[in-house]
Q: What sequence folds into this?
């Protein structure tokens, strides 16, 4: 295997390697696994393709996303080789023009690509979709999400304050990757809904804000829980809704909320329809802030003049994604998107048998 | 202390770099374009600059086009129109 990356010789101590990568602005501030040629080769062996093969130029600096560079960053993040096909598929998905990675990388908004892994590969590598799935404690989640961020920084060139112009950034920019909790999902999992087979393994990237909590310890009905979901989703300060044609909302139902909703005979279409109808803000509120004046709305919304009219945050129910994740408890989450990126899914096609 | 060999994680640019034509030395009789990113007040800036360019620099015409919104690339038709009609185009980045 021929590797082409520049080689550095450093003192063989964890502190020296960590220091050298921090000095060069090659890491996220956390310690890294040294990307030795041997480790990078082991990573590359987990996927099909030549190390020099590029998935495309990665914005904002348009540097080539070669499999080798993706593998170097995956090693640094702490990935195991079996995690690498997920990283590669996620980069393929982010490079789809519909995802608008240039915008996601360069904006002042705190957007981060959320990776959702569905299918048998998620179970095989221990990608976690249960209790605390958005938080620490699970190697596959932590390192795959971190690899994506290191790739966006080191290959794409999105360094905070320089090309990544996010005002505050987000904890989600360290790592933002989960599996769907398919075992507790009373409906079809996300990838099946999107047209993939149940036995396919699929990664979906969603350009989202960090999760907004939906606490509902009171409601014992589908409509009660979904009213709380809708109320949390429709807020003036969130980006979703301002460029309506690209606005999407992810609803992450906790298993207990999902069971209650399904117990009322709600299918996923009903969930989407309910949230579409109820996650709305009055025109008069929308005029108070956000991106009022520079919104990109369809003609019918621009023609509304009555301040009491309730306006939607996405163009149709199909722009609302519903997944089940998390553990016990009366919480769900909503993840509004950044309003200028559409979710993209890619099957894992490069797993080396 | 023994040494360890590690690989750089930084990507490399392999795209062909396009060379922009030189800026005109004189704006007299030229057509100037503005690509508006739609953010607040850029349209006012264009209005003021259009007047100045005409009065002080003898600019013949100004073409002002807006993107659909600030976060997505300009439509191909807009870029083609500006490229065809203008001698010089300013990309607006109001924020």
A:
């Amino acid at each position: 295997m021929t590797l082409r990356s520049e080689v550095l010789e450093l003192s063989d101590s964890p502190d020296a390697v960590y220091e050298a990568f921090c000095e060069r602005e090659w890491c996220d501030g956390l310690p890294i696994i040294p990307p030795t040629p041997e480790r990078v080769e082991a990573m590359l062996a987990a996927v099909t393709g030549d190390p020099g093969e590029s998935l495309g130029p990665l914005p904002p600096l348009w540097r080539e996303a070669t499999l080798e560079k993706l593998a170097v960053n995956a090693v640094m993040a702490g990935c195991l080789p079996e995690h690498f096909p997920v990283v590669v598929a996620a980069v393929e998905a982010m490079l789809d023009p519909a995802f608008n990675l240039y915008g996601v990388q360069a904006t002042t908004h705190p957007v981060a690509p959320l990776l959702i892994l569905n299918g048998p590969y998620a179970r095989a590598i221990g990608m976690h979709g249960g209790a605390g799935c958005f938080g620490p404690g699970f190697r596959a989640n932590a390192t795959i999400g971190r690899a994506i961020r290191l790739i966006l920084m080191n290959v794409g060139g999105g360094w905070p304050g320089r090309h990544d112009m996010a005002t505050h950034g987000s904890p989600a920019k360290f790592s933002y990757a989960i599996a769907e909790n398919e075992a507790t999902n009373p409906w079809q999992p996300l990838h099946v809904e999107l047209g993939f087979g149940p036995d396919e393994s699929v990664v979906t990237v969603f350009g989202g804000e960090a999760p907004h909590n939906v606490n509902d310890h009171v409601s014992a009905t589908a409509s009660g829980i979904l009213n709380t979901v809708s109320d949390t989703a429709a807020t003036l300060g969130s980006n979703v809704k301002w460029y309506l044609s690209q606005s999407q909302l992810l609803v992450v139902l906790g298993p207990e909320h999902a069971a209650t909703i399904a117990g009322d005979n709600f299918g996923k279409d009903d969930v989407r329809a309910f949230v579409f109808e109820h996650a709305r803000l009055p025109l008069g509120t929308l005029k108070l802030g956000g991106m009022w004046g520079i919104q990109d709305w369809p003609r019918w919304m621009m023609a509304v003049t009555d301040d009491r009219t309730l306006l939607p945050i996405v163009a149709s129910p199909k722009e609302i994604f519903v997944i089940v994740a998390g553990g016990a408890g009366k919480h769900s989450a909503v993840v509004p998107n950044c309003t200028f990126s559409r979710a993209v899914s890619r099957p894992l096609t490069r797993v080396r048998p | 202390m023994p040494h360890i060999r590690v690989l750089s994680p930084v990507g490399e640019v392999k795209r062909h770099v396009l060379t922009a034509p030189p800026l005109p030395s004189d704006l007299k009789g030229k057509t100037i374009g503005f690509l508006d990113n739609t953010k607040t007040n850029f349209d006012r800036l264009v209005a003021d600059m259009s007047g100045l360019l005409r009065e002080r620099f003898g600019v013949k015409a100004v073409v002002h086009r807006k993107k659909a919104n600030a976060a997505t690339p300009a439509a191909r038709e807009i870029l083609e129109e500006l490229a065809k009609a203008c001698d010089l185009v300013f990309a607006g980045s109001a924020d």
About this structure: DSSP finds two helices and four strands in chain B.
